[in-house]
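Each lists chain and fold; for instance:
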Amino acid sequence: MPRPDIRVQIMRDGTGNAIRMTDEAVTLLVAEATAAVEGFAKIELDELVYSQPPAPSGYVRTGHLLNSVGHRLTGPTEGEVFASAEYAVHVHEGSVHNTPAKPFLVNALRREKRRTPARARRIARQLGLTQ
């Protein structure tokens, strides 16, 4: 019985080392990484917004923005992390009312980017692609 074709991709881990990744491995990596970015975004929001003194604007912190952060897979090798609160962009980018930007999504992505090579190596090992 012929074996199904397995496409293998080579990723660089930031140190110049190559990591063999099958489609299955990439799908697992994207699923784990998007979930991690969501978690980091919530940590960033807590650090940048919720643990800070209230803004002088008088807005009440309800946790709506924090609860609106989520992630979803949009394809086998693609995912997205989002904040669906209608004012999320104003918090993230800042506003014309001299409210400084609190880039919780960008910061979360940076946190995960540093961890992705190790995550990819672990997944490759678990699937028997590397030792």
About this structure: The longest strand covers residues 69-75. Residues 1-6 have pLDDT under 50 and may be disordered.
